[in-house]
Amino acid sequence: MEEGSQMRGKYVADISSIREAQARINSFIHKTPVLSSESLNAVSGRRLFFKCECFQKGGAFKFRGACNAVFSLDNDQAAKGVVTHSSGNHAAALSLAAKLRGIPAYIVIPKGAPKCKVENVMRYGGQVIWSEATMQSRESVASKVLQETGAVLLHPYNDGRIISGQGTLSLELLEQAPDIDTLIVPISGLFNYSSSAKLSISSFLFLHNLYYRFLFVLIFLIQKEKKINKIVGGGLVSGVALAAKSINPAIRVLAAEPRGANDAAQSKAAGRIITLPETNTIADGLRAFLGDCTWPIVRDLVDDIITVDDKEIIEAMKLCYEILKVVVEPSGAIGLAAVLSDSFKKNPALKNCSNIGIILSGGNVDLGGLWDSFRK
Amino acid sequence: MEEGSQMRGKYVADISSIREAQARINSFIHKTPVLSSESLNAVSGRRLFFKCECFQKGGAFKFRGACNAVFSLDNDQAAKGVVTHSSGNHAAALSLAAKLRGIPAYIVIPKGAPKCKVENVMRYGGQVIWSEATMQSRESVASKVLQETGAVLLHPYNDGRIISGQGTLSLELLEQAPDIDTLIVPISGLFNYSSSAKLSISSFLFLHNLYYRFLFVLIFLIQKEKKINKIVGGGLVSGVALAAKSINPAIRVLAAEPRGANDAAQSKAAGRIITLPETNTIADGLRAFLGDCTWPIVRDLVDDIITVDDKEIIEAMKLCYEILKVVVEPSGAIGLAAVLSDSFKKNPALKNCSNIGIILSGGNVDLGGLWDSFRK
């Protein structure tokens, strides 16, 4: 169990730690708006409330947890800085939180990481420290930084302070839309590698049809995104579930997960943490499976896990752009995908989910990449 | 001067009619959020407040005015329905407002109008009545509908009720962000036809390079949008200026206009309404130049008009997508384009514009068309 994750009651976070987090971070975060759409209500047959965390600082909910963790440190600890070797939205969020506190953030990034990711970290003042691409190298570089600086390692999700920070989203949302009886929260945004990996650069060159070339680029971008998204690891849904169930135990908390990386669904079914070795291998060490802090919360408080396929996620992304006018990343759209999926609509147990809060968790999709990819 | 535009003091609308409109439409409209971004503040060197009217019902501010006009009608008038022969965002907004009041909306649409436009009208329950593409045909079809039904013709901007409705945006925004000292409002979203018209379908077929094909499709989509956008005609800026100047006469109201259709800037310079015949011809009768209701307000209350070119608008659109995570149409992004333009930055008179409200006026860009265009 990570540092900073002492038990608070049954889990590493509880409603008090979440309320403390809210008081701590309130002046730093954006209170993100809740949008609704009659058209999407009609399509889904429910009332939907979209919590737009894509408008959060850093473009994703991650800033809540990072901010809480950074501002939880005592002055002596804080002065030495913070370290992470996850290089997704958490790294950017941690850099920004550290900048606001005026302390250094050391971000270990593997060589070959997407440029936009590195730029995000640097924009927010994070100090990039390069490692090789393997998890072994990343961990050893991070541990060297820890030794040299005395900084604090902050895990992206398996940490009570992070979970408490993400939980503030629940408090905010349930105040903004008190009628909510169901929450749908992304639990991981990893797409099915095996299907998309069939396409390679050489196959792209042979795709003369413009439509397929376009689709290829789309899938390529989603591939890139995936490495960012898999880092979710249950931190968001854990915090959201803890706060929501504490405020109103009757609220249903559902997690949405891509079918191609359904470790959370498998874990729930098995009653223990299941990791997917093949995904783990290809995702190159961004081992964002449920952690020992998040798993007990997911096991006990998440009522069900809805799995959706890539096609449904892309369709939901389009609806977010076209109807809501909101830019989301694939993992951001997965909650809407879940609510529109057959497995949701046809599930009799979910029939009386009437007022549904959907977390649009982030909007960090590289649209510039879309432009640029066509330029090449 | 149109029906419904009796003078209220000096102009066809005033702060009282705007407050009346607010009370009338408040329960029907979305209170749209105001977003901010440290990154865009840093780029512009000012504090920016983005009023997201792209999240308004119907995807644009137009619903405010349409809703006010429809709910201003007395019961006998209303029962006979409403008519318009402008087929942009106003038509969809009017259909929706009429649906909410439970009265018919007759929308005269020229054959060959973009499919998404027609679908929007139909989705909101408007009755589509086809005309030929000429303005003459549209007017004669509309007048026939008026005779047959006794319905009320509602002009998209040259009407006091419409202007009052759009003005409610000011009241809302200045309450949400009271520090604002400057407002930037789109006055028309028409792009420079002459430059983009050089590209034709045959030239598309000869563009083998993927990037140029992509650019072509982008320009094509903007072309399509243009017909919707030019309908702005000063209704928004008139309402916004009336309300803002009444609340705080020191507030600067700036209009943003594309360089290729700068009739407002030319009119301001000349002191009388200038129409651009060549634009008028190509835009096929969507004669959205300043009307006799909007012109006096623009002449007296708009402090300056910032013109920007297409390249600046596209760049601003990208920033809205990538940084704000908001989907805007070209005319929606023009306010941000203005604030980032050299002509704004280097203008000494605008140096002390510190807290700037930018109206993201609409988000009805046909992203599906982007997908579909590649499919063909």
UniProtKB/TrEMBL annotation, chains A, B:
Its cofactor is Ca(2+); pyridoxal 5'-phosphate; Mn(2+); Mg(2+). GO terms for molecular function: ATP binding; D-serine ammonia-lyase activity; L-serine ammonia-lyase activity; magnesium ion binding; pyridoxal phosphate binding; serine racemase activity; threonine racemase activity. Keywords: Lyase, Magnesium, Membrane, Pyridoxal phosphate, Transmembrane, Transmembrane helix. It holds the Pfam family PALP. The chain crosses the membrane at residues 201-222. It comes from the Eukaryota. GO terms for biological process: D-serine biosynthetic process; L-serine metabolic process. Residues 27-189, 233-362 form the Tryptophan synthase beta chain-like PALP domain. PROSITE patterns: DEHYDRATASE_SER_THR. Belongs to the serine/threonine dehydratase family. This is Tryptophan synthase beta chain-like PALP domain-containing protein.
